[in-house]
């Protein structure tokens, strides 16, 4: 096995951070030819401009979907993702703004349905994180910002999407390995990921009579803009080397879990969580 590429020290003073500034660039590229698993489908992906969201958008487009890419303010990353989706044969709609504002979440879903005529897949993926080792000094502003992005936006997007989702539709929440094992330096973030997990499980039961499946994906360390945006440069160096593979996941390796759950391959899955985490054993 080749020696994993070591992540060099780097930091960005923004959250969400920018993928185009990362070294090395994250790998979003799907590995296999599309076979039409999502042909004719429309997906709404929050946080779709970069990281896992970009990889999901690329893979969904390769499998035949059109994609609405909702993002906060990372215009250059979003434009690049739109190009990627179009190169894969899909149509892309860029929607800029804060999904933690309920009226914007409603407008974003409305734009999606007006543009593409339908909505079949909701990916609740937008999030922010910061290192917060000391809960006593965690500011109210940062705590509320994390909760808004990682929890409230999921509720608002789901509420807006449900009138348009028909039997056979799929909702997938991004959670984290930290929702299962905790993380003493990501207390607020881990708490919100526990909430997105509980939301998926609760919705799965609530929406089963409507034929809407709801599941979650709980990644471990992934090389996305989260990392240089939330961690000091010295912590970013060698990121992910503690996994069983000696490296972090690349976004494309996580995106395949979303495709499985969104397509008919996952037709008997609801209320479940997939764990692309590099070998951490958790109680699923």
Automatic annotation (TrEMBL):
Pfam families: adh_short_C2 (PF13561). The keyword Oxidoreductase applies. Gene3D superfamilies: NAD(P)-binding Rossmann-like Domain (3.40.50.720). InterPro entries: NAD(P)-bd_dom_sf, SDR_fam. GO terms for molecular function: oxidoreductase activity, acting on CH-OH group of donors. Keywords: Oxidoreductase. It comes from the Bacteria. PANTHER family: NADPH-DEPENDENT ALDEHYDE REDUCTASE 1, CHLOROPLASTIC (PTHR48107:SF16), NADPH-DEPENDENT ALDEHYDE REDUCTASE-LIKE PROTEIN, CHLOROPLASTIC-RELATED (PTHR48107). Belongs to the short-chain dehydrogenases/reductases (SDR) family. This is NAD(P)-dependent dehydrogenase, short-chain alcohol dehydrogenase family.
């Amino acid at each position: 096995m080749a020696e994993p590429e070591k992540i060099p020290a780097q930091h960005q003073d923004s959250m969400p951070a920018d993928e185009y500034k990362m070294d090395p660039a994250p790998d979003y590229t799907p590995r296999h030819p599309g076979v039409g698993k999502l042909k004719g489908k429309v997906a709404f992906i929050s946080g779709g401009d970069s990281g896992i969201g970009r990889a999901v958008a690329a893979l969904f487009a390769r499998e035949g979907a059109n994609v609405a890419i909702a993002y906060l303010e990372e215009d250059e990353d979003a434009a690049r993702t739109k190009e990627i989706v179009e190169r894969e044969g899909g149509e892309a709609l860029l929607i800029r703004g804060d999904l933690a504002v309920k009226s914007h979440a409603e407008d974003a879903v409305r734009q999606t349905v007006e543009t593409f005529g339908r909505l079949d897949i909701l990916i609740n993926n937008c999030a922010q994180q910061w290192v917060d080792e000391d809960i006593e000094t965690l500011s109210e502003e940062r705590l509320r910002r994390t909760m808004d992005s990682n929890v409230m936006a999921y509720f608002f997007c789901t509420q807006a999407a449900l009138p348009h989702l028909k039997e056979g539709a799929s909702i997938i929440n991004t959670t984290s390995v930290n929702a299962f094992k905790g993380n003493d330096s990501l207390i607020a973030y881990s708490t919100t990921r526990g909430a997105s997990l509980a939301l998926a499980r609760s919705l799965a039961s609530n929406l089963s009579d409507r034929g809407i499946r709801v599941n979650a994906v709980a990644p471990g360390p992934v090389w996305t803009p989260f990392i240089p945006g939330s961690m000091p440069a010295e912590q970013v160096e060698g990121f992910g080397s503690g996994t069983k593979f000696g490296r972090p996941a690349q976004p494309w390796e996580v995106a395949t879990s979303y495709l499985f759950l969104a397509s008919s391959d996952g037709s008997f899955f609801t209320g479940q969580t997939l764990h692309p985490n590099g070998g951490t054993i958790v109680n699923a």
